[in-house]
Every structure is written in C-alpha cells, then in structure tokens.
UniProtKB/TrEMBL annotation:
Protein name: INSC protein
Transmembrane segments: none
Top-rank taxon: Eukaryota
UniProt domain Protein inscuteable homologue C-terminal: residue ranges: 61-513
Pfam families: Insc_C, INSC_LBD
Organism field: Melanocharis versteri
GO molecular function: cytoskeletal anchor activity
GO cellular component: a single term: apical cortex
GO biological process: apical protein localization; asymmetric cell division; establishment of mitotic spindle orientation; regulation of asymmetric cell division
Domain Protein inscuteable homologue LGN-binding as annotated: residue spans: 4-49
CDD domains in the cross-refs: INSC_LBD (cd21966)
C-alpha cells in the first residue's frame, strides 16, 4: 500500500509539472519537481540584481541554458520524451528570465538584438510545442519522424542563443571601452577597467571579444597618460588577461605595446606594483605555451632593456609575489630567445637569483623556485655558466631542489615541485660536463640522492619526467666519478640503455595483486 501511494504521488507531481503554463513557470523561477536523480539539472538562480553583479548573473544564466541544451540533446538521443519536454519547458523559462533580467539593466539595445530576442523566444515556444506533441502519441514511427524535426529546432535554438549571447557580450565590452576612452573621470575609468578585468576572467572567448573591440588599444592609451598613473597596475593586470589570446597579441603589436612596457619597466619613477604588473604582461606574452608569439618582432628590439629591468626588479623585490612575476617573465624570455641567456650572464643574474633563493621571504614557494631553476637550466647551456654556479653555491641549491616536496598536497603545488626536481636534475646533467661542477656535485652527495629518486617512485611523486632527468644526470656524474656508484646501481641505472633503465625503475613499485 505504501509503495502504491508513493508511486501515485510521484506520478501526480510529474503530470502537474507538464500541465503548468510556461508563464507560471517563469514567475516561479523554473522550479519543477523531478522524479529522476538529476539534481544537477535543477539549476536555479535568484534574479535579484542586488545580490549579484548584472553581468555575472547574465553569464551564469547563459551557462545554465547552454548546459540544459546539451542535456536535452542527450535525453533526446535516448528518446526520453517526458524528460525532453520538462527540460525544454525549463530552458524556455530560463531564456525568458534571462531576457527579462537583461532588459531591466540600464543600457540601450540595438535593433539587431531585439530581432534576435524575438527569434529566440519564438523558436523556444515552437520547441516546447514540438516536445509536448511527442507526449501525446505513442506511435514509434511518428516519434521517429518528429525526432529529426526536434533535433533541427534544438540546433536552431542553440544557434540563436549563441548569437544573442555573443551580441550581448560585445555590447557590454563596447560600453565599457567607450567609458574608458571618453571619460576623463578617474573614478569612472577605474570602475570601467575593473569591470573589463572581471569580464576577461570569464575565459578566452570573452578576451577575444574585448580584443576585437579595441580593448588592448584603449588600455595602452591609459598607460601612456600620466594623469592615470595610479591606475597603471590595474590596467596592466587587465592587459595581461586579454593578451592570453592571439587577437590580443596582434593588437599589442599594432600599438607598440612592447615599447610602452619597456618604458614603464625602465622608468624608476613608477611604483613597484606597476613594474610587477608590467612584468606580468611580459610573462604572459612570452609564455612558451603560446603558439603565436613569433610575430613579436619588436620584442627583440627592446629585449636588452626589458631583461635588465626585470633583473633589477628581482634584485630589489620587496615580496615573494613581485619576485615571482619578475622571475617568471625572465624564465619565459630564456625560452623565447637564446640571446637572453647571454644578456643575463653579463648582468650577473645568476648571482642575483642564487642570492634571492637564500632569502625565504622572497623565494618562498615552489612556484618561485620553479622559475629560478628554469632560468638556471636554460643558462646552463653556456660554458661560462659553470664558474658562476660554483661561485654562488649553485650546486648546493640544485641539490636542495632535488628534495623539493609539497607541504600542502595541493595538485598545482605538487606539479610545481615535480618541475623543480626535474629541472634541477636537468641543470646538473648539463653543468656536470664541467669536471669542477661534477666534483662539487659528487662531494655534496648528489649521486645517492639521484639514485633514490630513480629507485623510489614516491620520492619523485611517480613522475616519469623526473625519472628521465635523474637518470640522465646520474649517467653524466657516473662518467666523471665512476667510484661513487655501487656495482648494482651501475649495472641497473647506468650501463643499460636509458630506456631499459627507465622501464626497470618504473616497474619498481610494490605490487599488491
């Protein structure tokens, strides 16, 4: 009897939900009761703009609609008609709510936007009517023929929705950039830049929209006006976000952005915060992970000035964050052009970086040590580098980095520790071609530590890249000091081919099968 009652109540709730008018659902903020354990589909937002920034609310609503459309396609594939219809009703409500919310914002709308809104609402209503019709028949042939129509309508809804969101975001970016360009007020400009930064944090697509609408040009215009000096750090931070996309980089090149950044970095009248944010932009545009930095021809023209300023910023950094930004920029530049390593050597950068590593207040995280060891690894290809490393106790530092461990267990920190271990082993391998460096490394017991990293997967956090680097460093040191290894270590880690030693070490984990 209990089972019958529960089943009847659930059926009544389901029927009630499907009979509810769309307008009523819109008023109730789309709160259907689901019979399936599909909690994630019940994505509800408060429409109160006082508790959430208007634009953020719009973006969240857009994400919900996009997610729901994807789920409708999945349910449609399985011919779950009741679920398809209930979710279609919900999407219809979310679309209407989003448009109502957006139209209450204090802003002007274009005729194109009004047309798209009407097309989207009409198509959503058509979509809902289609799916409702499917509930009224059980004929498989009719349902099969209707499925293709529904799929086509779903595609059109998604297309109109995507175009509308693109137009809305473009409109928002244009409004903010208009405020930045036309306002002479410090307060209005600061507020607009802050909103633009928030917009850029929403992802690469929004950065592309901002760049296409002239965001990089407008922000560099701010950086060239002394009356906005107090806004330089915030403006540069926004530029760093936008320049993660190719369109931003092209705009930077067109407005001689590199020259502007070089001027800021070399101008001692600017604050450390301004210099640090300029370094962040340099780090972004020279990132080795980007594939579209080749066109930065003007960077090479200003590289010596920029590198000199960044080394000085590392030397005078008052905090770990400033040092991290400056060293990250230098690390990326050493990948960007080999001439940078020679400039660094001439500037005694090795000595400055090694000295900074002994100050735990400045180099206080694995992320900072990752940048330092990256620079050391890239500089170690130069023959003159060996004597600098020995004079600055660099081998001792590299040895310490082989023990790098995460204190928090945070995945990004663990990954940084792995990179530190790997790059310190790579640097040792490169530097140990110099007999003097190899001798110091042997005396500091680098060989036993490298052996342990090879043989103990937990010591290297099961990282294959750390293992390969340690095997390479061990083999280089073994050539210079063969007496430092036991016979078993030599037979397993040095004598075989590198790939065979690698396979042997990766199979050393204890098996519980």
């Amino acid at each position: 009897m209990h089972l019958i009652q529960v089943d009847s109540v659930q059926r009544w709730m389901e029927d009630l939900k499907l009979m509810t008018d769309c307008e009523c659902m819109c008023i109730l903020q789309s709160k259907p009761i689901s019979i399936e354990k599909d909690e994630q589909s019940e994505l509800i937002l408060s429409s109160q703009s006082s508790t959430c920034d208007n634009l953020q609310l719009l973006l969240k609503r857009a994400w919900i609609i996009s997610t729901e459309l994807t789920r409708i396609a999945q349910k449609l594939e399985k011919s779950r008609w009741q679920r398809v219809h209930s979710m279609t009703v919900r999407v219809n409500c979310h679309v209407r709510s989003m448009l109502n919310e957006y139209n209450t914002f204090p802003r002007s709308s274009s005729e194109e936007m009004h047309q798209l809104e009407k097309l989207l609402i009409d198509k959503c209503s058509e979509f809902t009517a289609f799916t409702e019709r499917c509930l009224q028949t059980e004929d498989e042939e009719i349902l099969k023929s209707m499925k293709s129509c529904i799929n086509e309508t779903l595609t059109t809804v998604a297309q109109y929705f995507g175009q509308l969101i693109e137009l809305v975001l473009t409109h928002e970016a244009q409004n903010l950039l208009r405020q930045i360009e036309l306002s002479g007020s410090l307060y209005v400009t600061e507020s607009a830049i802050s909103s633009l930064f928030s917009l850029a944090q929403e992802g690469a697509h929004l950065c592309r929209i901002i760049a296409k609408e002239g965001g990089v040009v407008a922000l560099f215009k701010i950086c060239r006006q002394d009356c906005f000096r107090c806004l330089y750090p915030q403006t540069l931070r926004t530029l760093a976000s936008i320049c993660c996309v190719e369109e931003g980089m092209h705009q930077l090149e067109k407005v001689d952005g590199i020259l502007c950044l070089a001027d800021i970095l070399t101008d001692n009248s600017h604050s450390e915060a301004t210099h640090a944010e300029a370094a962040a932009v340099i780090a972004q545009i020279t990132s080795p992970h980007l594939t579209f930095t080749q066109h930065l021809s003007s960077f090479l023209e200003n590289m010596e000035e920029i590198v000199t300023a960044l080394v000085k910023l590392c030397q005078e950094a008052s905090s770990g964050e400033v040092f991290l930004l400056a060293s990250a920029a230098l690390a990326n530049i050493t990948f960007f052009d080999t001439m940078a390593c020679e400039i660094l050597l001439q500037l005694n950068a090795m000595k400055i970086l090694l000295a900074a590593c002994s100050d735990k207040r400045i180099v206080d995280t694995p992320y900072s040590r990752d940048q330092v060891v990256t620079i050391l690894a890239n500089m170690s290809v130069l023959d003159q580098c060996a004597s600098e490393i020995i004079q600055g106790n660099g081998v001792q530092l590299l040895m310490e980095m082989l023990f790098e461990k995460s204190s928090s267990g945070n995945p990004s920190e663990v990954a940084a520790c792995e990179r530190v271990q790997q790059k310190s082993a790579v640097t040792l391998a490169r530097l140990s071609r110099d007999p003097e460096v190899a001798d110091v490394a042997v005396k500091l017991s680098c060989i036993p530590r490298l052996i342990k990293l090879c043989r103990s997967p937990t010591e290297r956090n099961n990282s294959d890249s750390v293992l390969v680097a340690c095997l390479a460093a061990l083999r280089r040191l073994a050539v210079m000091s063969p007496d430092g290894l036991e016979d078993s270590d030599f037979q397993q880690l040095v004598k075989p081919r590198l790939v065979d030693s690698f396979l042997l070490c990766t199979n050393m984990e204890e098996s519980f099968v």
